[in-house]
Structure formats: structure tokens, C-alpha cells
């Protein structure tokens, strides 16, 4: 797959009224906050789950493997890690992550390992354990190994875990399903250097509302200033009430500034949506989710939040919509000028990336002219093999903002 010219929002797995979804949607993330649909079939989901964690595991420089672990499969908690876009027979199973867990939360550590925390095991209880899933450099590049790490402050699932710029992480909200007071409003911070041997959690305050299945992100508003976001979620375990409230907390240098603040409300009540920030942490995107459990209504909308300070934040509804709403999907951001390992294209719609020869001057998505192969010097149609840009040379009429394919004038 040629390098992508723009960042991509990848939304995969999740549940719909028709069942667990087996396709992935890909959107181009523009710097002004717009999204344009690239594909709704770019990476097949061969292991259908919801409430899994997702991460981009870096294989080599600017090359990533979309990975998801845990989740629910047919109402059974899952403990495996899978490689998105590959059938089981082709090596999609990457690791046994240990304890089965759905509704866990994770971050990618500086060494490229995935730290997976908490989660619900329907056969047992909420987990207060965590596990580090790391790439095994001695095996094939998709092989991962799992190592138990330190305990959380309490058992929890459907919580938020976000990495901060200062070598720390923040944990907030969630549910301790088997507790007398299950919903959590507390928040903690931890130094990431301590998570294996001696985890030291420091409580940093409480949100005004206990919540689970909320959407999370960290926005950067200054060189050493970040705003942590907790948006929407379920605020009653008994009734399943969904909220539109948003809470923010500011982290500046080594300190937490003034506790949690109420932020601008979501455009609608929302929970169990996918959330991901842009690579520069300038915007938080929220996609899909559930509007109301009372009337069983889902959302196909995608919103983004931009903050200039903790008191100046604004939600915007993008023009893009999901093909179908998703509950508990995995959301990931593929950086600009990078690619998915072994994939020719993330954009399979509109005959882009389908390995079928398209003639020149035919209209395609993103104003890309040429399709998967181009006319060479002898005017014969040639294939664009995996990772082989040399065969893709034809008259340049525009660049693909979807797959990142570009052509060169001959």
C-alpha cells in the first residue's frame, strides 16, 4: 500500500441491530476537521466482536498493524488479540492476552507495547488486573506476547485510560459491575514507569457525574498543557440513562489544574461510541454509539471537539456519516504518510484498491484517475503490486485523498 497522504480514521468491529459487524469504515481526516468517506469495506473483520480495545502496532517505520484484543463474541468474553484484515488461516491470531476481558481500556506505550487495563469477564467479575501485550521481535512480525502488569485502584470496565505527554496516564470513570455502587466518578493518575513492578496510583479528583461507556480523549492546547475529555456515557446502571454532559480536566506541566470542569454538552445524548484524537491531539472525533437505550436508537453521526482552552471548546458535526451505527466499536487513527502492513489500499469502494484495471479519465472518488493500474510506456495495463509504486506511473490528474495513491507524469 502506498503511503497515505492524510491521516485516516479507522472504525471497526462493534454491534448493530443486525448483529456484530464484519466490515471496517475508513475516513480521511482533513486538517480543518472535515471527514470524507474513503471506504466501508477496507479491512475485513474476520473475528466479530464488540467492546474490544484497538491499537496500531508499529511494524516498522511508518508501517502499522491494526490490532484488537478482548471484547464480547456471542456474549462470551474474549481474551485473544487479533490482526485486523486477515482470516484466521492467514495468521490473524496474534496472542493470548491472558484473562478474558470486554470493555477494557488501553494505551500504546513508548516501546510500542499495548497496555490493556480492567475489563469485564462475564464468567467472573470486573478485572482490577492489567496486561502488557508486546511485539515479539524474535518471531514473525505479527506475533505478540503477553505479560501481567500491576493492579488498578479497583475493579472496573467500560472506563477511560489516556496517555499524557509527561510520561503519565490518567484513568477515569467506568463501572465496578458487582459493587453496591457500581458507577465510578473517581479519577487517578500513574507514572508509566511504574506499571509493571510497583504501580502507584494517585487519586486526582472526582467528576460531577459517575459514568461508564463514555468517550475519551486528550487535546493539546499548549506546549505543556493538555485537556482530558470525558464525554457522554451511561449515568445510571438501573435505568441505562444516557447523558450528553461533558467533563474536562486540565493537566499543565506536572500538575492537575483545578479538578474537573463541565464542558460544552455533546450535540445529543450518547454512549458507547468510538473515539480517537488526531495525531497532533488538536481534535477529538466521536463516531457512532447509542443515543438512547429506552428507544433502542443508535447514531450514525461523527462529531469532533476542538478546544483552545478549558473554557473555550466547541463541538462540530461532520458531514460524514457511518454506513450503519455501531455500538462499542474500535476507533484508530492511521498517521499521515504511513501505511498498513501488507495492504495495497484502505479504499476498496468506487473501484479503488480492488486490483481491477481501471482506464484513465474515468471519474472516481477523490478525483483519482487511474485506479489500480496505469498505462505504461507501451500503453499496456499493468498491476500495482503490494508496495510496488514503480508500476503505477501514468498521467497525473489528481492525488487520491483516500488510498494515498499518487501518479507521476510520464
Highlighted features:
single chain, mainly beta, Neuraminidase, 2 domains, 410 residues, 4-stranded antiparallel sheet, globular
Task: Walk me through the topology.
Layout: E1 7-12, E2 15-16, E3 19-20, E4 25-29, E5 35-39, E6 53-60, E7 63-69, E8 72-73, E9 76-77, E10 80-83, E11 93-96, E12 105-108, E13 114-117, E14 130-135, E15 144-149, E16 160-163, E17 168-172, E18 186-191, E19 201-206, E20 215-222, E21 225-231, E22 246-252, E23 255-262, E24 274-277, E25 284-287, E26 290-292, E27 297-298, E28 301-309, E29 312-321, E30 330-334, E31 339-340
Parallel strand pairs: 7-31
Antiparallel strand pairs: 1-4, 1-30, 2-3, 4-5, 6-7, 7-10, 8-9, 10-11, 12-13, 13-14, 14-15, 16-17, 17-18, 18-19, 20-21, 21-22, 22-23, 24-25, 25-28, 26-27, 28-29
What is the domain total for the residues? 2
Give the DSSP E fraction (strand runs of 2 or more residues).
35-45%
Q: Remind me, CATH topology of the largest domain?
A: Neuraminidase
Q: Report, as a whole number of angstroms, the end-to-end distance.
A: 21 Å
Structural class: mainly beta
Amino acid at each position: 500500500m502506498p503511503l497515505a497522504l492524510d491521516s485516516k480514521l479507522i472504525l471497526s468491529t462493534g454491534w448493530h441491530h443486525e448483529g456484530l459487524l464484519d466490515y471496517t469504515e475508513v475516513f480521511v481526516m482533513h486538517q480543518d476537521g472535515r471527514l470524507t468517506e474513503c471506504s466501508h469495506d477496507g479491512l475485513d473483520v474476520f473475528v466479530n466482536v464488540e467492546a474490544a480495545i484497538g491499537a496500531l502496532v508499529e511494524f516498522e517505520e511508518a508501517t502499522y498493524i491494526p490490532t484488537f484484543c478482548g471484547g464480547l463474541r456471542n456474549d462470551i468474553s474474549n481474551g485473544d488479540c487479533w490482526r485486523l484484515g486477515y482470516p484466521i488461516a492467514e495468521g490473524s491470531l496474534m496472542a493470548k492476552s491472558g484473562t478474558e476481558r470486554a470493555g477494557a481500556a488501553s494505551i500504546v506505550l513508548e516501546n510500542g507495547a499495548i497496555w490493556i487495563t480492567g475489563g469485564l469477564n462475564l464468567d467472573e467479575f470486573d478485572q482490577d488486573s492489567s496486561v502488557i501485550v508486546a511485539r515479539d521481535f524474535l518471531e514473525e512480525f505479527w506475533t505478540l506476547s503477553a505479560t501481567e502488569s500491576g493492579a488498578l485502584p479497583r475493579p472496573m470496565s467500560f472506563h477511560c485510560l489516556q496517555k499524557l505527554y509527561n510520561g503519565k496516564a490518567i484513568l477515569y470513570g467506568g463501572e465496578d459491575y458487582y459493587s453496591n455502587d457500581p458507577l465510578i466518578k473517581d479519577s487517578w493518575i500513574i507514572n508509566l514507569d511504574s506499571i509493571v513492578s510497583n504501580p502507584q496510583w494517585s487519586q486526582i479528583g472526582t467528576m460531577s457525574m459517575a459514568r461508564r461507556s463514555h468517550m475519551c480523549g486528550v487535546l493539546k492546547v499548549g506546549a505543556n498543557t493538555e485537556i482530558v475529555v470525558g464525554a457522554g456515557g451511561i449515568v445510571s446502571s438501573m435505568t441505562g440513562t444516557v447523558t450528553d454532559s461533558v467533563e474536562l480536566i486540565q493537566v499543565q506541566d506536572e500538575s492537575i489544574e483545578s479538578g474537573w470542569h463541565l464542558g460544552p454538552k455533546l450535540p445529543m445524548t450518547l454512549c458507547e461510541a468510538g473515539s480517537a484524537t488526531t495525531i497532533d491531539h488538536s481534535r477529538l472525533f466521536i463516531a457512532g454509539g447509542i443515543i438512547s437505550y429506552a428507544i433502542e436508537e443508535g447514531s450514525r453521526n461523527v462529531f469532533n471537539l476542538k478546544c483552545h482552552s478549558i473554557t473555550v471548546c466547541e463541538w462540530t458535526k461532520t458531514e460524514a456519516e457511518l454506513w450503519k451505527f455501531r455500538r462499542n466499536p474500535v476507533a484508530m487513527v492511521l498517521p499521515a504518510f504511513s501505511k498498513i502492513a501488507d495492504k495495497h489500499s484502505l479504499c476498496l469502494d468506487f473501484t479503488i484498491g480492488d486490483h481491477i484495471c481501471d482506464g484513465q479519465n474515468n471519474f472516481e472518488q477523490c478525483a483519482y484517475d487511474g485506479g489500480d493500474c496505469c498505462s505504461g510506456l507501451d500503453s499496456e495495463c499493468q498491476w500495482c503490486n503490494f508496495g510496488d509504486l514503480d508500476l503505477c506511473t501514468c498521467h497525473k490528474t489528481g492525488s487520491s485523498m483516500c488510498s494515498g495513491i499518487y501518479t507521476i507524469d510520464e
